[in-house]
């Protein structure tokens, strides 16, 4: 098999596939997190509190819109992995065409709506008057990057669906480096460039996304990759588009629910004052690092499950689940132990106030001890998503966040007269999500969602994709 057309995850060592496939994605997440820290330093240290507040106000809006895009591209990843695993290359091309139209169209639509409603959204969020107009200007510029960011999300999902997690990492690395270099140049106006202040960070994102996306598209065409986007055939935009939409919408809703849940819980914490907010913010940074391996293992497991379900290899899916639990459980267990044993040392990386550190320590003792539950949940959710049952994982998120976490955070914090009630609510929600996810996995109902992807005897012969696309090119 020609390696440039992805990696066959339906054969070979499952633990090796999990590690080699998830590691580039984990490195990519670390790169993105490192950039967010660097960007926060530029903004906070050199542009002042007002600029940092502007970015903070804009973040929930950006996070929600990105969540919608990533939810839709999850559907692309699932359908590409299932088609690739079943060697249904004509179906794969239909998925690429339909996803390109759907995701790019969604990015343009959300950009237009965002440009129109940005002032109303920021008013609804009670944005302070002194940063209102700068926030409107910054957010409107940043929203121009949405179609290009969505394009990157889509191509990354397609490549990962074919088992290639390295190529997205290389281009993400270039994007992060380019944005990091452009930030100070456009903020301060070095090398003859205009001095744009805070808006320079938004323009840096736009420029880097446009350039990297263009280079990636050209590279995919030069490599004759099956996921190289092109002018879609109208015949490919019917059932495949509806299937992408049907799987992607629940995943997008799930991301939005998570975003809104974060906003609600933060609002409850804010009622207990500045110390509580600062402690929650610092501890959430630890959460971000702790959740990163679990999230990336979940994405890897979703792709592995998708390919193997497409190929009809159900016993391998059970092995993927077992190995996923072993890897994700072990890593998050180590992180849990570190959070419980060394909470002060971890928190002091972000904050030094002893009162804040003390309250943050209570968070890590309660929530940090449950990180392993989060890690295991993403394994079973990965299998369920890989089967295309994104509506199920959306319902699980609904139960965990809106039936357990948010109501319990409100009730327990009021009954205890202490913000620690929020900490207990978050921990309990981990138990709820794990219980629901595992119950659905062991029920076996997720197998029905992928049953129609079982290959025929002819498809099980697994022709080389290079030969298939060469033949298709000759016919065209």
UniProtKB/TrEMBL annotation:
<keyword id="KW-0472">Membrane</keyword>
<dbReference type="GO" id="GO:0015297">
    <property type="term" value="F:antiporter activity"/>
</dbReference>
<dbReference type="Pfam" id="PF01554">
    <property type="entry name" value="MatE"/>
</dbReference>
<feature type="transmembrane region" description="Helical">
    <location>
        <begin position="169"/>
        <end position="188"/>
    </location>
</feature>
<feature type="transmembrane region" description="Helical">
    <location>
        <begin position="320"/>
        <end position="342"/>
    </location>
</feature>
<feature type="transmembrane region" description="Helical">
    <location>
        <begin position="362"/>
        <end position="384"/>
    </location>
</feature>
<feature type="transmembrane region" description="Helical">
    <location>
        <begin position="21"/>
        <end position="43"/>
    </location>
</feature>
<feature type="transmembrane region" description="Helical">
    <location>
        <begin position="101"/>
        <end position="118"/>
    </location>
</feature>
<dbReference type="InterPro" id="IPR048279">
    <property type="entry name" value="MdtK-like"/>
</dbReference>
<keyword id="KW-1003">Cell membrane</keyword>
<keyword id="KW-0812">Transmembrane</keyword>
<dbReference type="GO" id="GO:0005886">
    <property type="term" value="C:plasma membrane"/>
</dbReference>
<feature type="transmembrane region" description="Helical">
    <location>
        <begin position="55"/>
        <end position="80"/>
    </location>
</feature>
<feature type="transmembrane region" description="Helical">
    <location>
        <begin position="422"/>
        <end position="442"/>
    </location>
</feature>
<keyword id="KW-1133">Transmembrane helix</keyword>
<feature type="transmembrane region" description="Helical">
    <location>
        <begin position="200"/>
        <end position="220"/>
    </location>
</feature>
<feature type="transmembrane region" description="Helical">
    <location>
        <begin position="391"/>
        <end position="410"/>
    </location>
</feature>
<dbReference type="GO" id="GO:0042910">
    <property type="term" value="F:xenobiotic transmembrane transporter activity"/>
</dbReference>
<feature type="transmembrane region" description="Helical">
    <location>
        <begin position="138"/>
        <end position="157"/>
    </location>
</feature>
<protein>
    <submittedName>
        <fullName>MATE family efflux transporter</fullName>
    </submittedName>
</protein>
<dbReference type="InterPro" id="IPR002528">
    <property type="entry name" value="MATE_fam"/>
</dbReference>
<dbReference type="InterPro" id="IPR052031">
    <property type="entry name" value="Membrane_Transporter-Flippase"/>
</dbReference>
<keyword id="KW-0813">Transport</keyword>
């Amino acid at each position: 098999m020609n390696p440039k057309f992805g990696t066959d995850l339906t054969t070979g060592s499952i633990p090796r596939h999990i590690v080699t496939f998830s590691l580039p994605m984990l490195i990519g997440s670390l790169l993105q997190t490192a950039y967010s820290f660097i960007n926060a330093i530029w903004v906070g240290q050199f542009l002042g509190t007002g600029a940092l507040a502007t970015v903070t106000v804009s973040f929930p809006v950006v996070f929600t819109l990105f969540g919608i895009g990533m939810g839709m591209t999850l559907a692309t990843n699932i359908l590409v992995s299932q088609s690739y695993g079943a060697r249904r290359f004509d179906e794969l091309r239909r998925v690429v065409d339909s996803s390109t139209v759907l995701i790019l169209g969604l990015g343009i639509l959300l950009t237009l709506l965002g440009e129109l409603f940005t002032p109303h959204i920021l008013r609804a969020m009670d944005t302070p008057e002194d940063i209102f107009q700068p926030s409107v200007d910054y957010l409107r510029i940043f929203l121009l990057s949405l179609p290009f960011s969505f394009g990157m999300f889509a191509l990354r999902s397609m490549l990962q669906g074919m088992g290639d997690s390295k190529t997205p990492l290389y281009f993400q690395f270039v994007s992060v480096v380019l944005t990091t270099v452009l930030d100070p140049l456009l903020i301060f106006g070095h090398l003859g460039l205009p001095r744009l202040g805070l808006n320079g960070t938004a323009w840096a994102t736009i420029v880097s996304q446009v350039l990297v996306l263009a280079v990636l598209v050209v590279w995919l065409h030069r490599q004759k990759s099956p996921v190289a986007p092109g002018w879609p055939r109208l015949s490919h935009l019917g059932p495949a588009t509806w299937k992408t939409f049907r799987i992607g919408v629940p995943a997008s809703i799930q991301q939005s629910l998570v975003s809104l849940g974060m906003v609600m819980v933060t609002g409850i914490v804010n009622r207990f004052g500045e110390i509580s907010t600062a402690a929650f913010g610092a501890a959430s940074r630890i959460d971000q690092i702790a959740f990163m391996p679990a999230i990336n293992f979940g994405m890897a497991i979703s792709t592995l499950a998708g390919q193997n379900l497409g190929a009809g290899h159900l016993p391998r899916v059970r092995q993927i689940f077992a190995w996923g639990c072993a890897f994700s459980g072990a890593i998050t267990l180590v992180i849990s132990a570190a959070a419980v044993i060394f909470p002060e040392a971890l928190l002091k990386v972000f904050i030094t106030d002893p009162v804040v550190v003390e309250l943050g320590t209570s968070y890590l003792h309660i929530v940090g001890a449950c990180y392993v539950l989060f890690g295991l949940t993403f394994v079973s959710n990965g299998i369920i998503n890989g089967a295309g049952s994104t509506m199920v994982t959306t319902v699980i998120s609904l139960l965990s966040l809106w039936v357990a976490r948010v109501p319990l955070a409100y009730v327990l914090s009021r009954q205890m007269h202490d913000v620690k009630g929020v900490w207990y609510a978050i921990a309990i929600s981990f138990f709820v999500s794990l219980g629901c996810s595992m119950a659905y996995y062991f029920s076996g109902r997720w197998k029905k969602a992928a049953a129609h992807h079982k290959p025929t005897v002819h498809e099980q012969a697994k022709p080389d994709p290079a030969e298939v696309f060469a033949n298709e090119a000759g016919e065209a």
